[in-house]
Design goal:
This protein is mainly alpha-helical. The protein folds into 3 domains: 100 residues, Fumarase/aspartase (N-terminal domain) (Fumarase C, Chain B, domain 1, Orthogonal Bundle); 250 residues, Fumarase/aspartase (Central domain) (Fumarase C, Chain A, domain 2, Up-down Bundle); 87 residues, Ribonucleotide Reductase Protein R1, domain 1, CATH 1.10.40. Helix 3 packs antiparallel against helix 4, helix 10 runs antiparallel to helix 11 and helix 14 crosses helix 15. The mean pLDDT is 95.
């Protein structure tokens, strides 16, 4: 009996059709065909170099594999979805084209180390693509922040107006998050950059292989130190899924603020029509659906991370079929993150900022109260005493329907004789903003430094 399976020899009957469909992974691992073929070419070259197979066989194998890749890329050849996995498809196509020589390719390797290789190679490329998308987002944030380094808005804690900040300062807070995301991806990629091929099924091989040669050919920085770990390690998958989850956390937080800022209650920004939708029944509506979808899709990525952790937590060494579940989860993580970044960045770049609305909101809510207390502290009053005095002033203003700016000097002096005419300059919003010159603060000069530093980091990631 010959069912075409790579593991035919042991079995006397074919796999049940339903079981075959349940067992197969080609529907999702077919996307790794480039990595599978590239890895196989390096493996064949190593086999010839070590004298494990003849040079002419290796050349025939490599030429045929290159032809298969070319035919797949051009559409001349389609992947046969009846095959068990992408590895089976490539090997069967190879053997169909060159015969017996093709059967020598699988010498000194297993599908266990082969799939680990393909996945690491694929995820390294996905990581690079995601880093580039994050770079573009950070560049957009730096450009917007530069434009609004002096645009005053209320800063919030507990979603209550707290202190005056600039819109640029607010944007650069998100830039810091996304810069950390890039750094996390780069760190995770370095730990993924370890060659598992040569581990074989779990115990290594009796053949005199040269793993360092294959690592160099495929761009890996090292080889795995333990063959059992080489085929069973999926830490790199979990770590990348975790990095993707944090990216989605940051995008979701940002989306929530965009949704708030778009509302008539805030109206700090207006999204471009190309990144908004309307209502089927309410003609006045302009909905921030893109931001809402980004916020919602974060749950997908979090779910994939939990799936990966749950899948791995009870597995004995070494390879287990459960690990086939890793691919759909991590593919879903990167697919979702990339899709969100591709729409989020241009949504930000095209939005209209409404500084007048931000300034009007900043004028209310007593967000200069801390500066009023700092004024008294500078006059020699202990901060806690000054804090209590200003709290009493705020309560008075609320009762009288006034603001700190609208109180006359006589009213100020009824709370403390330390108040003089210069109080009005001290609590002016521009003064409040400009005086926060501590490193990392909201003063325009500090925001500019943050932007400059952010751009340098973005450029360094580009070069790496």
């Amino acid at each position: 009996m010959n069912s075409g399976k790579l593991w035919d020899g042991r079995f006397s009957k074919g796999l049940d059709g339903t079981v075959n469909d349940f067992n197969a992974s080609i529907h999702f691992d077919a996307r790794m065909y480039r990595e599978d073929i590239t890895g196989s070419i390096a493996h064949a070259q190593m086999l010839a170099k070590q004298g494990i197979i003849e040079e002419k066989d290796s050349e025939e194998i490599c030429d045929a594999l290159a032809g298969i890749l070319s035919d797949l890329e051009s559409g001349k050849l389609e992947i046969d979805l009846s095959c068990e996995d992408i590895h089976s498809f490539v090997e069967q196509t190879l053997t169909g084209r060159i015969g017996e020589a093709g059967k020598k390719l699988h010498t000194a390797r297993s599908r266990n180390d082969q799939v680990a290789l393909d996945l690491r190679m694929y995820l390294k490329n996905e990581t690079d693509t995601t880093i580039e998308l994050l770079r573009k987002l950070c560049e957009t944030l730096c450009t917007l922040a530069e434009r609004h380094s002096s645009t005053i808005m209320p800063g919030y804690t507990h979603l209550q107006r707290a202190q005056p900040i600039s819109f640029g300062h607010h944007l650069m807070a998100y830039a810091q998050m996304f810069l950390r995301d890039i750094s996390r991806l780069e760190d995770a990629k370095e730990r993924a950059n370890v060659l598992p091929l040569g581990s074989c099924a779990l115990a290594g091989t009796t053949y005199n292989t040269d793993r360092a040669f294959v690592a160099e050919k495929l761009g890996f920085s090292s080889v795995c130190a333990n063959s059992m770990d080489g085929v069973s390690d999926r830490d790199f998958v979990v770590e990348l899924a975790g990095a993707c989850s944090l990216i989605m956390t940051h995008l979701s937080r940002f989306s929530e603020e965009i949704i708030l800022w778009c509302s008539w209650e805030f109206k700090f920004i207006e999204l471009d029509d190309a990144y908004s939708t309307g209502s089927s029944i309410m003609p006045q509506k302009k909905n921030p659906d893109i931001a809402e979808l980004v916020r919602g899709k974060s749950g997908r990525v979090f779910g994939h991370l939990i799936s990966l952790l749950t899948m791995l937590k009870g597995l004995p060494l070494a390879y287990n079929k459960d690990m086939q579940e890793d691919k759909e989860a991590i593919f879903g993580c990167f697919d979702t993150v990339k899709l969100c970044l591709e729409v989020f960045t241009p949504m930000l770049a095209t939005m209209k900022v409404l500084p007048c609305r931000m300034r009007a909101a900043a004028a209310g809510g007593f967000i200069n109260a801390t500066d009023c207390a700092d004024y008294l502290t500078a006059k020699g009053i202990p901060f806690r005493t000054a804090y209590k005095i200003v709290g009493q002033i705020v309560a008075y203003c609320i009762e009288k329907g006034k603001t700190l700016e609208s109180l006359n000097l006589e009213e100020y002096k009824s709370f403390s004789e330390q108040f003089e005419d210069d109080i009005y300059g001290a609590i002016d919003l521009n003064t409040c903003l400009n005086r926060r010159t501590s490193e990392g603060g909201t003063a325009p000069e500090q925001v500019v430094k943050q932007i400059e530093s952010g751009r340098l980091k973005v450029e360094s990631y580009k070069k790496s």
